[in-house]
Amino acid sequence: MKLFLVGGFLGSGKTTAIHQAINYLSLSGRRSGMITNDQGTQQVDTQFSRFYNIPVEEVSGGCFCCNLQYLDKNIKSLLKTYSLDVIFAESVGSCTDLIATVVNPLLKEYESQLEITLTVFADIQVLLSFLQAGKNNFHDNINYIYEKQLEEAEIIVINKIDLLNSEQLKWAKKLIRQKYGHKKIVYQNSLKLNGISNWVKTVLENDKGPALRQTLHLDYDKYGAGEAEMAWLDEEIGILTNDKYAIEAGMLFIKNIHTKIVALRYPIGHLKFLLNDGQTQRKISYTSIKQPEIRLKTNRFKTNRVVLLINARIQAEPAQLSNVISSTILELEFTIGCRIIGNKLSSFKPGYPIPSQRISV
């Protein structure tokens, strides 16, 4: 069985690519599923995947490395329930040291029964900013995590290449090759099914056998400090209107939250929303403070009630992030006369990373 461990910083497009890869593999008769992972306990990606009938399990409340027993349990559960050929395991976007804390322990346990490959995703615009300036919009400790993620990658996927024109992409490839030319690099637009084909073929062919892999030299104090720079907020809210325009109210709520965070200049790791109108689910994602405004489309279906799940990973204090949400709720209730009911609010900073196992080579 093949386990494709997928890392990379918040907002790099991992989930979208995995969904496309699962669809792509199904065309050749390969059965695949995924394991999601988050420091929080209410995951947009898990709910969204289940809505589309993707076999999925989740590891919540901490990263794979600190909850290795639950990752192992979910691997076995997916294999037993669905008899899968491939499992994609998507790690938390602020996690690194995956070779020592996940790959090597699983290789030791499963021996030759499990083929494992680590792919790390990078948003091409964020990566270019990092390579040019040695940093991006985030704190230096967060940039340290970003750098180490790419350093330990077996395969690097440079994602969102559709955001550059041909000349920009040509220049970007030259710059990236200078830094990471010794690694396997794949360039792709994950929004298209055929856009992920090269990545899927590369990981399918990347069998390194059961030997333990070379591990990172990592400063865990700096790593932990980087994780602590980010505020994590999860909340589920209900939006009720007297008319049939709850979907529009939900979309306005989403837009206003993003507008506030940009105005406050809080760097966005990812800002994800899952809007459930009773008939379908819509996932809306913001992944960069420089990202252009998303045009949110409505449909003919009208309802007076929607449920909205929020996952925000922002460089800020948890109290600051909570205030953005609460103030937006009050403003929307006052301006359009809707009723918003908050539920299951969780806002925090991740704790110091303590791996369940670490096998260094």
Brief overview:
With 361 residues, this protein is an alpha/beta fold. 39% of the residues lie in helices and 24% in strands. The protein is globular.
Computed over alpha carbons, the radius of gyration is 20 Å
Chain-averaged pLDDT: 94
Q: Give the full name of the CATH homologous superfamily of the largest domain.
A: P-loop containing nucleotide triphosphate hydrolases
Q: What's the CATH architecture name of the largest domain? A: 3-Layer(aba) Sandwich
Order of helices and strands: EHEHEHEHEHHEHEHHEHEEEHE
Structural class: alpha/beta
**Count of extended strands:** 12
Largest sheet: 7 strands, parallel
Strand content: 15-25%
Strand order in the sheet with the most strands: 3-2-4-1-5-6-7
Unreliably modeled segments: none
Fraction in helix: 25-40%
List its traits:
361 residues, 24% strand, 7-stranded parallel sheet, globular, alpha/beta, Alpha-Beta Plaits, 11 helices, Rossmann fold
In words, what does this structure look like?
The protein has two domains: 225 residues, P-loop containing nucleotide triphosphate hydrolases (Rossmann fold), CATH 3.40.50.300; 119 residues, 2-Layer Sandwich (Alpha-Beta Plaits), CATH 3.30.70.360. Helix content is 39%, strand content 24%. The chain has eleven helices and twelve strands. Helix 6 packs across helix 9 and helix 10 packs across helix 11.
